[in-house]
C-alpha cells in the first residue's frame, strides 16, 4: 500500500503480536516478533528498547531458554556481539522444535553480523557452530561457504555451497556457486550458475544481481 499505509499499519501489527501473546504466553514466535518490532521500528513509530526488555522479562516467566535467546538478540542489536554469541550457544532447546528453530535463526543472525563486519574467520566459526547443532540449516552452509570464499579458500567453500543447495534451492546459493567456479577457473559452470541465479524467483538483491550480471558479461 506504500510507505504511508505501511506506517499506518505499525500499531495494528504491534497490537496483533501483543494479542497473540495474551492468548498464548508460550507463543514464542509471537514473543520474538514483538521484541523484533520494538528493536527495529524507530522510537517515534513505536519502537522501544525498554519495551523489548519487558518482552524478555515476561518470556522469562514461561521459558528461561527462550528468554535467553531473546536476550541474545537484544545484545546483538546493542552491538554486544560476543555476549550475544555466548548467550545463544549456551541454550539447550531440550528437543523443542520451536525453540530450536528460534535458536537457529538468532545464531545465524549473529554469524551474518560477522560477515557484515567482514570478520570472516569469526563468521566461519559461528556458522560451524550452527551446523554442529542444526545440520540441516541451508543458510548456515551458505554462510560458511561465503565465509570460506571471502578468505580465498574457494575449494573448501565449494562443498559447503553445494550442501546448502541440496537442502534448499536459493538464488543466493546459485550466485555463490557462480563466484566459486569463476575463482576456480571453470567459466562454463560459473556462467551457468550466474544464469540460474538471475533467473531465480524471488530475485536477488539489487547489488548482488548487478554483480551477477557483470560477471556473466565478463564470462561470455
Would you spell out the secondary-structure blueprint of this structure?
Elements: H1 3-8, H2 10-23, H3 28-40, H4 49-62, H5 64-77, H6 81-89, H7 97-116, H8 120-133, H9 138-150, H10 154-167, H11 171-183, H12 187-199, H13 206-219
Broad structural category: mainly alpha
* Average pLDDT score: 95
Provide the helix percentage.
Answer: over 70%
Q: What is the CA-CA span between the terminal residues? A: 41 Å
Total count of strands: 0
- The proportion of strand residues reads under 5%
Tally the helices.
13
Based on Cα principal axes, name the global outline: globular
Radius of gyration: 20 Å
Largest sheet: none
Low-confidence stretches: none
Q: What is the helix/strand order?
A: HHHHHHHHHHHHH
Entry summary:
The chain has 220 residues and is mainly alpha-helical. It has helices at 3-8, 10-23, 28-40, 49-62, 64-77, 81-89, 97-116, 120-133, 138-150, 154-167, 171-183, 187-199, 206-219. 78% of the residues lie in helices and 0% in strands.
